[in-house]
Design brief:
The complex is a heterodimer of chains A (499) and B (894). Chain A is mainly alpha-helical and 499 residues long. In chain A, 73% of the residues lie in helices and 4% in strands. In chain B, β2 and β3 form a beta hairpin. By secondary structure, chain B is an all-alpha fold. The chains are: A mainly alpha (499), B mainly alpha (894).
């Protein structure tokens, strides 16, 4: 495949724009909250359009790169936009922009908004950096920054639960981050700091044991963020504690950043052939398959809506790792697009959860009876996202599951269909009863909660993001085969991995 | 028929049969109802009448489009259109059979829609009903027109999920229960279906609805794929044992919706099974057909045939037990699907000679759609007027509702297979197919199947004799008022249209047999001439008529015996019901999820408790270790105090402690004396509190003094001059008592303020400092201390005086309050910081003033931190130094 590498400032711009937003948050508040909000939105929208434009160009065969900073004579900070990164970057930026708009309504009565917004923008900047990193050290820098500096967002509410969840988060993330650091250092000594372009920079010559050490350090390190099952503990606590717009991005793209890291490392550090030689991927397959089912089983019994969604995230993100671990062409496509599709679906679900919390004061599934009568648009958004999550055609979730299923057959594992379909069935079991409750149960109104029977729909600033993610869920499914859509980018990425 | 499948028999090649043309019509057929549905809500909100007209027009347009397929198919055999959507493309491909399904679907839909306009007056949410109806119509057409498995699956899922709204439409408790069961079975069926579709890819399929290539995949996957596909479609088709949702869901829907559910929608499942058995698992036409390739489809066909037989028998048996008319009809839907499956199964079993089975099965699909829809509409009309569905409570309605009676009777005659009506033809065709299947290999079991078939026909007859007899004939159980009259016109028109179709097909079966099935079979390369043979030799022949007579004789017998002996109200034990087992299974699954979660939570919380305990233990240990380490540092830096030093320090401590207590005691005594002296003017309200305040202040000051003195002594320990200080210490003991007086005075002076809760720290600290500088305990005892140390002491003294010389903090604070310029503020701040620094640096010598919590806790914390750090860094530097030395040594030795 022909690729033309272009030097361009755009990747840097996609990173710097939100960073500028973070810096400007406090000064702009001096002028007025409105100015701050509009400026932040403008910056994020600009970053998002840059990211989407880059994705479109990359889908057309271009590759962008920029050297930012020379750290040592050997080491550069280096951004490079390839198909995998472009898709992830576009997903991140768009979802973040929507969550930002949603924050206006959600955080309207919140405290410490300056801190919230500036860290929100900072996280976006780091995540864009993660998406566009061109070598391992750049990746490491952004990855660690974004892991650690999201802590203020996790504990934003500063309730005892939030603080406890934050502590848990930071411990897990630091341990995972250290392992990633260790792995990258080991990689550096084994292979030097090469750009992440070829299909693997490690070679079997460095010895089996060192390869295994590096491999497991990466898997354990990124596995914490990607919430593979023994390492998932922070996810179900962090999500209910965080503010809803942040939960949306936390679930939608931050957990996915772990999976993204795994993809980067497996395909571009190890390379498909080396991994096949090592023969370790079957263990990852088992781990991921177990995660899919186990987390989904746990989700069934959660009464706290956001907690249930958090378990769902663990289950769904394991699909990505599962798809990667099969080392099949189609399954890799499925894994890559599932990151994007899941981001918008789960983002939508969390936005709905936030609306229920803000408008109805409801945190629990069992209190959602009859919510559709009061919040018809929200309920519709929830229903569509839930169906997408299960993999109902023609929504986007179906497309990713389809490719994953094809990949399973392609690599000769028809039994894994049990995991694929079982996970989807369990998703139906934990999501659809909520939809049923919302639509077909009568609301139980007690005297002391001042819930009126009708007319509780949220302000437009909260509904518009929800509507947009819902439309994206539908559109990404319907138009999956068109050029420039996630599938084509994922196909390009997979072609470079499996060239 | 010898049944030998040899290559020469297959006369057509793919090139000959492939007449394909592209046309947008199939896509339009799906899109028109879908777009029509989009307008239902906006129209219905403003103009309900316009909306009613609109939905009828859309249904009529769809029917028109579907009939438009007929000439296209006649000319080209296959019409295709492709939309770029979803994964790659959605393709629609119409052959004769798809066309047949499309035509009868849209025909019955039109009838039902017309009927629903009046019927829905009972119901709420008309807009939702009509939207659902049109979307489901689009999905249904999508299913039958689909050209590949993905499109089929997409439409099938849409059909299943949206039809949920039909089932739950009335939103009664029954409807909710039924809809939940319906929904979960649809979802599970959908998963089975997609799993099966995936597996066809493992078998080398491309997603096309056509024969899988030979030689891919093993037998196990082939069976798994077939079972999952048939299960997936079978759920919708009401196939035993996954039929349990159907008898609950169909009766609770509004009658026109029941007609659609039972008449049309379950045919989507039948269509799927038809395509699976005779399409996907059929060997490729153009290939050289060998015995082994047909083997699988033969086995599959046999399995489906038996499923069909079981379905028809169980369905009829359960139908006879019902008293609710719609529920009975629903069970008959199950039973009639059994007929269809038996026909399709026979077709699969007979392979290239399966024309009779295909024709019988599909003819029965059309017939059942017509008469079951008509029956539901008829019973619905009865319900519309009488609001009762219990057959045992109705009766004699033929006089009140003659036209309804007529149409229902025609439909009932159709379903029971009365000659000259449509059911007769298809039932005979299926019967012939089963007989042929038996003759093919002379399997004894198929002989039994044939007998069961006849008995089932008898049961069907009994059941409808019961329906007609109890509801329309017989004596009225209650007096009906004038409101019980024939149904409204539009409902009658709908029923009439269906009845006409029933009679037409009964009289002229050639329309379908020659017009649709023969060309369709021809494109597959199967032997369509069997159907000619049927029309010439079997249609209305004496043996076939005899079988109808036998069935009716059986029917009357069952009816009278059943009514006489109450056999229609049997209730088996609940474990006999499949439904009960499904419920247990579902509950068990949920319960296992819940208990998994509980177990996980228990393990998790136990682990985290364990970890927390370990952590706190570790934390305690860390603190202890830290304390030891600091001790070690101090010892390393200053050396351990010797035994003699230790003894002297203890001695000094006891002495100084006594001094301290004496000082406090003296202050208190002096206070009491002052209070009780006659010249005292201070009016003290609370004596005890006053004394407490004095004791506090004096205690603090004495403590400070003691600490200072001990500090001086321990400094001497560090420098090793302690022994030299022994004699002076003993000598100055009397000097120490000089501080009693100032302490007492300060305490008394400040006690009232302290009582009021004000801070007296500054004053007291100042007094202590004054006492300290007057006393110079260190000079008193340090006669032997080297000059250099004294110089250091002086330097520190200067520091202390600088500190005292700086503007007091209160002044700075006051200045800040006055609103100074930024520069002045910065200067003030710098001075304050400088003061803090100087304070911190000199504090060690001048004593720990802040023994109590004060306002600037942070300052205190910082200071302590600095002190500790300074001490610790000493150790670190030492360790580094040692390491460095060791390193240098190692290098030097090399």
């Amino acid at each position: 495949m022909e690729t033309e590498v272009t030097r361009s400032f755009l990747p840097l711009a996609a990173f710097l724009l939100p960073l500028a937003g973070a810096v400007l948050t406090m000064p702009l508040r001096r002028i007025s909250a409105r100015v701050r909000d509009i400026t932040l939105l403008a910056l994020t929208a600009l970053a998002a359009s840059v990211a989407v434009w880059l994705a479109a160009r990359v889908a057309g065969g271009a590759v962008y790169e920029i050297y930012i900073l020379q750290l040592t004579p050997d080491i550069w900070m280096y951004l490079r936009v390839d198909a995998l990164g472009a898709l992830f970057g576009a997903t991140v930026a768009v979802l973040w922009m929507l969550a930002l708009v949603y924050s206006w309504g959600y955080m309207a009565e919140g405290h410490r908004l300056g801190r919230y917004y500036s860290f929100f923008m900072l996280s976006l900047a780091w995540t864009m950096g993660v998406a566009y990193s061109g070598n391992l050290l750049t990746f490491l820098i952004f990855y660690e920054l974004f892991s650690i500096l999201t802590y203020p967002l996790v504990v934003h509410e500063q309730t005892p639960e939030a603080m406890a969840a934050g502590t848990k988060y930071i411990i897990y993330i630091l341990v995972g981050g250290s392992l990633v650091l260790l792995a990258i250092v080991l990689t550096y000594f084994a292979a030097g700091d090469q750009t992440l372009t070829t299909g693997g920079i490690l070679s079997a010559e460095i010895g089996q044991q060192r390869l295994f050490a590096i491999f497991w350090c990466y898997i354990a390190g990124f596995g914490v963020k990607a919430a593979l099952v023994p390492l998932h503990g922070w996810v179900p606590d962090a999500h209910p504690a965080a503010p809803a717009p942040f939960s949306a991005v936390l679930s939608g793209v931050m957990v996915a950043a772990g999976s993204f890291g795994i993809m980067r490392v497996l395909f571009q550090v190890f390379g498909v052939e080396l991994l096949r030689e090592m023969g370790v991927m079957s263990m990852i397959t088992i781990l991921a398959g177990f995660t899919v089912l186990f987390a989904a089983v746990l989700a069934v019994n959660q009464d706290n809506l956001k907690r249930r969604l958090a378990y769902s995230t663990i289950s769904q993100m394991a699909y990505v790792v599962l798809g990667v671990s099969l080392l099949g062409f189609d399954s890799t496509i499925g894994a890559i697009i599932h990151v994007t599709n899941h981001a918008f679906m789960k983002g939508g679900l969390f936005l709905c959860a936030g609306l229920f919390i803000r408008r109805l004061g409801v945190h629990r599934v069992s209190q959602l009876d009859g919510a559709a009568k009061r919040m018809p648009i929200t309920a519709a958004g929830f229903a569509i996202a839930a169906l997408g999550m299960i993999g109902t055609p023609p929504l986007s979730g179906f497309v990713s599951k389809w490719y994953l299923g094809l990949g399973m057959l392609e690599t000769g594992n028809p039994l894994l269909l049990v995991v694929l379909l079982g996970g989807a069935l369990l998703a139906a079991v934990y999501l659809l009863p909520i939809v049923y409750r919302m639509y077909f149960r009568e609301p139980v109104l007690t005297a002391d909660d001042k819930i009126t029977a009708e007319g509780r729909e949220a302000p437009a600033s909260m509904l518009v993001p929800l509507v947009i993610v819902t439309l994206l869920t539908i559109a990404l499914g319907l138009s999956a085969s068109l050029p420039g859509m996630p599938v084509s980018l994922a196909r390009m990425a997979a072609e470079t991995f499996f060239h | 028929m010898d049944g030998a499948h040899v290559a020469s028999e297959v006369v057509h090649t793919a090139a000959e049969v492939a007449h394909v043309t592209a046309s947008p019509l199939p896509v339009l057929l799906v899109l028109v109802p879908l777009l029509g549905a989009a307008l239902v809500y906006p129209l219905g909100r403003r103009w309900p009448k316009v909306r009613d007209a609109w939905v009828v027009v859309i249904a009529a347009l769809t029917l028109l489009g579907a009939t438009g397929l007929i000439p296209l198919i006649a000319e080209h055999h296959r019409v295709e259109s492709v939309v770029h959507m979803l994964i790659g493309t959605l393709s629609f491909s119409v052959d004769s059979f798809s066309m047949l399904f499309a035509v009868f679907t849209s025909f019955i839909w039109l009838a039902s829609t017309l009927y629903s306009l009046d019927y829905l007056k009972h119901e709420q949410k008309h807009d939702r009903y009509h939207t659902t109806s049109l979307v489901v119509l689009a999905a249904m057409l999508g299913v039958v027109l689909a050209g590949d498995l993905i499109t089929l699956y997409l439409c099938f899922e849409a059909l299943g999920l949206v039809a949920f709204l039909f089932v739950i439409h009335t939103e009664t408790d029954d409807a909710k229960k039924a809809s939940i069961k319906y929904f979960w079975m649809t979802v599970v069926g959908g998963f089975a279906l997609i799993g099966g579709i995936f597996l066809t890819f493992a078998l080398g399929g491309t997603g096309a609805i056509g024969p899988l290539p030979a030689g891919h995949g093993d037998e196990l996957i082939r069976w798994a794929a077939a079972i999952m596909l048939i299960l997936g479609f079978g759920v919708k088709a009401g196939m035993v044992p996954v039929h349990v949702w159907l008898p609950d869901a169909h009766p609770v829907a509004p009658s026109p919706a029941s007609a659609l559910l039972s008449g049309v929608m379950i045919k989507a499942g039948a269509y799927g099974i038809f395509r699976v058995v005779t399409g996907i698992f059929r060997p490729e036409v153009a290939e050289t057909i060998e015995e082994s390739l047909w083997h699988f489809s033969e086995q599959l066909g046999l399995a489906v045939l038996w499923i069909g037989i079981a379905t028809m028998a169980i369905g009829v048996f359960l139908a006879l037990q019902q008293s609710n008319a719609k529920r009975m009809l629903a069970y008959h839907s199950v039973s009639q699907m059994g007929f269809i499956l038996a026909g399709i199964g026979a077709a699969g079993y007979l392979g290239s000679h399966g024309a009779m089975g295909v024709a019988g099965g599909l003819f029965h699909v059309v017939n059942h759609a017509l008469f079951k829809a008509c029956l539901f509409l008829g019973v619905g009309a009865v319900y519309f007027r009488t609001h009762s569905l219990d057959m045992y409570h109705l009766g004699g309605l033929w006089k009140k509702m003659p036209l309804t009676f007529l149409f229902t009777l025609i439909a009932a005659m159709g379903i029971t297979g009365v000659p000259l009506l449509n059911g007769f033809v298809s039932k005979c065709l299926i019967h012939h197919a089963i007989v042929e299947a038996w003759e093919y290999r002379h399997l004894a079991s198929l002989g039994i199947a044939e007998k069961i078939y006849i008995v089932t026909c008898g049961g069907t007859a009994a059941s409808f004799i019961k329906l007609i007899g109890l509801v329309f004939l017989g004596k009225p159980k209650v007096e009906y008022g004038p409101e019980v009259k024939d149904a409204p016109k539009r409902m009658l028109v709908a029923m009439a249209a269906l009845s006409v179709a029933i009679i037409t097909l009964g009289l002229r079966p050639q329309i379908l047999l020659k017009g649709v099935f023969q060309p369709g079979l021809h494109t597959w390369g199967l032997h369509g001439d069997l159907l000619d043979y049927y029309l010439e030799h079997y249609f209305l022949s004496p043996p076939d008529l005899m079988s109808v007579v036998v069935a009716f004789a059986l029917g009357f017998t069952i009816f009278f015996v059943g009514m006489r002996f109450g056999l229609f109200h049997l209730h088996g034990p609940k474990w006999l019901s499949i439904d009960w087992w499904y419920r247990r299974l579902a509950r068990g699954l949920i319960a296992s999820c819940v208990s998994t979660d509980r177990a996980y939570e228990a393990v998790r919380s136990a682990t985290s408790r364990f970890m927390r305990r370990t952590l706190s233990e570790y934390g305690g240990m860390a603190i202890r270790v830290g304390r030891r380490r600091r001790l070690l540092v101090a010892t390393l830096l200053t050396g351990a105090p010797g035994a003699r030093d230790q003894h002297f320090i203890q001695h000094a401590y006891v002495t100084l402690e006594r001094e301290r207590q004496d000082a406090v005691r003296r202050a208190v005594a002096q206070t009491i004396e002052k209070l009780h002296s006659p010249g005292d003017e201070t009016a003290v309200v609370d004596e005890t509190a006053y004394l407490d305040a004095v004791r506090d202040i004096a205690g603090y000051m004495a403590q400070r003094l003691m600490t200072e003195r001990m500090g001086v002594l321990s400094d001497l320990t560090r420098t090793g001059d302690l022994q030299a200080a022994r004699a002076p210490f003993e000598a100055v003991r009397s000097e120490l008592t000089r501080v009693y007086r100032p302490i007492a005075e300060t305490a008394i002076a400040n006690a009232p303020r302290r009582m009021r809760g004000e801070s007296v720290t500054r004053e007291v600290a100042a007094a202590v400092n004054a006492i300290l500088s007057n006393e110079r305990f260190d000079l008193l005892i340090a006669s032997a201390i080297p000059q250099a140390r004294q110089a250091l002491g002086q330097a520190l003294e200067i520091g202390a005086s600088v500190r005292h010389g700086l503007p007091p903090r209160s002044a700075i604070q006051a200045a800040r309050a006055d609103g100074l310029s930024a520069l002045e503020r910065a200067a003030a701040w710098s001075i304050e910081m400088l003061a803090l620094v100087v304070d911190a640096l000199t504090r060690e010598r001048t004593g720990r003033l802040m023994d109590r919590p004060i306002d600037e806790t942070t300052v205190l914390g910082t200071r302590l931190g600095i002190q500790r750090y300074a001490r610790d860094i000493g150790l670190n530097v030492t360790v580094l130094l040692v390491l460095l030395l060791a390193f240098i040594g190692a290098l030097a030795l090399r």
